[in-house]
Amino acid sequence: MLYSAVTPTQKRADFRAALASGRLLRFPGAFNPLSARLIAAKGFEGVYISGAVLSADLGLPDIGLTTLTEVAGRSQQISRMTDLPTIVDADTGFGEPMNVARTIQTLEDAGLAGMHIEDQVNPKRCGHLDGKQVVDDATAAKRIRAAVDARRDPNFLVMARTDIRAVDGLAAAVDRAKKLVDAGADAIFPEAMASLAEFAAIRAAVDVPILANMTEFGKGELFTVKQLADVGMNIVIFPVSLLRLAMGAAERGLDTIEAEGSLTSLLPQMQHRAELYELLDYPAYNHFDSGVFNFTLNPNLPS
């Protein structure tokens, strides 16, 4: 009912413990608060919030147009819906090191368990597009140090994302990952790895948790959870997958209305009203007013 009763502090502590367990943690990307609740209901270990999804939700491309206020506000709405830890894409930190520091504290206040900052130049672009540019080692390290120094909860995860693999190759990615860990990064997100062997090379280079990005239609192959676990990955994200599935279904639905004049043929593919109300925990709101949920729904009937 309403929001999670687990405090952000406890979620962060639980997240750190889960990372220390050695298990691979699965973090599907939520595109709104309701999808975060579905992720939790299906038994996943965490929720991811993609910058590309936040941009797309506003009808904008992923080129650094979103603001800290927009990202923090939507992240709070999503993170408070479940007992799971939520991590968010903070792009390049929304400015210079002092802005990075403010970003960290704002995201802490929004209830996040962690975030990642990348080493692209501003304006940044999607990590799986050509033409990316990255900052030098000193600038990348300065961003991470500012983030680590600013956090108030030591369990708030500061993850460093590096996009240098697509610019200067794997050796540069290995070197950058080491330097980001030296700067204080709690975890590494090596973007656009081309193979399991490349993930393994990053694993051999650093002793902090590593995140693998399994985004569709990108630069890399889509590996299974088992394959990633076998090369020592600690977190896997599916950042835009649910949005792509939802938008694909929406497009097919609109086409069906155009072609058939109704959506009767697609009813079996829809989430039933009864399933939606269960996900929303509708009956629990009778705690406030016994007239809120005083009806029954037959899940076998269209509704």
From TrEMBL:
SUPFAM superfamilies per record: Phosphoenolpyruvate/pyruvate domain (SSF51621)
EC number: 4.1.3.30
Cofactor(s) annotated in UniProt: Mg(2+)
One Gene Ontology biological process: propionate catabolic process, 2-methylcitrate cycle
Pathway: Organic acid metabolism; propanoate degradation
Origin: domain of life: Bacteria
Keyword annotations from UniProtKB, A to Z: Lyase, Magnesium, Metal-binding
Reaction(s) this enzyme catalyzes, per UniProt: 3-hydroxybutane-1,2,3-tricarboxylate = pyruvate + succinate; (2S,3R)-3-hydroxybutane-1,2,3-tricarboxylate = pyruvate + succinate
Protease is among the record's keywords: no
CDD domains, per database record: ICL_PEPM
PANTHER family, alphabetized: CARBOXYVINYL-CARBOXYPHOSPHONATE PHOSPHORYLMUTASE, CHLOROPLASTIC, PHOSPHOENOLPYRUVATE CARBOXYLASE
Family the entry assigns: Belongs to the isocitrate lyase/PEP mutase superfamily. Methylisocitrate lyase family.
Protein name per Swiss-Prot or TrEMBL: Methylisocitrate lyase
Species of provenance: Cryobacterium mannosilyticum
Gene transcribed to yield this protein: prpB
